[in-house]
Design goal:
51 residues; mainly beta; globular; 5 strands; 0% helix; five-stranded antiparallel beta sheet
Length: 51
């Protein structure tokens, strides 16, 4: 599942709809910079890729 995301992908956090951009990827998690410039590591199951 984690291979689905790439650095630079735009994503939505499914719990609250906040949008962000993937900065890094590890097995099962993505580092994301959010709209408010906050950066966090999130479980891939909580992210949805914006096509």
């Amino acid at each position: 599942m984690y291979n689905y995301f790439k650095i630079g992908d735009h994503v939505i956090y499914i719990r609250d709809g906040v949008r962000g951009t993937v900065l890094g990827i590890t097995e099962g998690a993505c580092q994301v910079v959010w709209e408010d410039q906050f950066v966090s590591w999130e479980n891939v199951e909580m992210l949805q890729k914006i096509e």
